[in-house]
Specification:
Strand order of the largest sheet: 15-16-18-17-19-14-13-22
Order of helices and strands: EEEEEEEEEEEEEEHEEEEEHEEE
Number of helices: 2
Number of domains: 2
CATH topology of the largest domain: Cyclophilin
Distance between the termini: 15 Å
Strand content: 25-35%
Length: about 300
């Protein structure tokens, strides 16, 4: 994890006769996408003139001109002027009530700084007007990682779809990386439907303390697919997951399916065959509570070929 990062937008002074300070409002905001290390890190820069006179600012600010990065050790990194197209090196005139905005991708400007996961605080100052700082968080890029799920019935290997479920995949693999699942159980087993586990309480009511915004991934709930369990709220998925034993199309679009078994379907069948009893507090009409605990011995990361952990 890198330390906090302050991003300061510096500009030339406003031209003579222009309004400055309280008349110019600068706003920063993330673009709403899921941010990952090594991928685009877009920040929205917006300028608004709330005064009665025009304000002149460098047009290059909409391309990142003048951006500086303050590192934890107090040093600074300035954006090279070459990031601004020649045609943009001119004044931007904001009339009274006028505004301008742009998305600035910080990743290609500071590829080394944004190549690792971490939290960053971003602030801006343009023509004497300061923006309210924002925090962004870059998640680790999990592209190509698999997970090996070890049980007493054998081992299952899973692959994931971060292209359609980036938040869900990141949440799950981050929990695996923390060894969150080691020693937990499959507390709900319904043969011909699915097996569900990953609950720290072991009864279907637990969570990790973090919830994932719902991602409608488009992945169908076919045999061997892994998907996130949730409560009635679509955004309540946390740590519990289920492996689809037999295709269940009625789940499609309602649960975030985010990967699939690539090795070990026979292990899934063995788990689905364990003797179960009716859970009086459960949602299933038939037997679904394993009579003997079906334990997840370990979930371990399997990095892509040629990559480190």
């Amino acid at each position: 994890m890198r330390g906090l990062l302050a991003l300061v937008v510096l500009s030339a002074a406003a031209s003579a006769g222009s309004a400055v300070g309280g008349d110019l409002v600068v706003t920063l905001a993330p673009d709403g996408s899921f941010l990952q290390a090594g991928k685009p890190v877009r920040v929205r820069v917006a300028l608004e003139n709330r005064g009665r006179a025009s304000i002149s600012v460098p047009n290059g600010v909409l391309f990142g001109q003048g951006l500086k990065v303050k590192l934890a050790d107090g040093s600074e990194r300035a954006v090279a002027e070459t990031v601004v197209p020649a045609a943009a090196k001119q004044a931007l005139l904001l009339p009274a009530g006028g505004s301008a905005a742009a998305l600035v991708d910080l990743a290609p400007v500071f590829p080394d700084l944004f190549s690792s996961a971490g939290r960053f605080t971003i602030a801006a100052e343009v023509a004497g007007a300061s923006a309210e700082p924002i925090e962004i968080e870059l998640a680790r890029d999990w592209t190509g990682f698999h997970v090996a799920l070890e049980t007493e019935f054998g081992e299952i290997e899973l692959e994931f779809f971060p292209d359609v479920a980036p938040r869900t995949v990141s949440n799950f693999l981050s929990l695996v990386d923390r060894h969150f699942y080691d020693g937990l159980t499959f507390h709900r087993v319904v043969k011909g439907f699915m097996v569900q586990g990953g609950d720290p309480k072991g009864d279907g009511t637990g969570n990790s303390g973090k919830f994932v915004p719902f991602e409608k991934t488009g992945v169908k709930h076919e045999r061997g697919v892994i998907s996130m369990a949730r409560q009635a709220d679509f955004n309540s998925a946390s740590c519990q997951f289920f492996l689809v034993h037999q295709t269940a199309p009625f789940l499609d679009g309602n649960y975030a399916a985010f990967g699939r078994i690539v090795r070990g379907l026979e292990v899934l069948d063995r788990i689905a065959d364990v003797p179960c009893s009716v859970n009086p507090n459960g949602v299933d009409r038939g037997p679904s509570k394993p009579k003997d605990a079906v334990r997840i011995a370990k979930l371990r990361l399997v990095p892509p070929a040629g990559a480190g952990k």
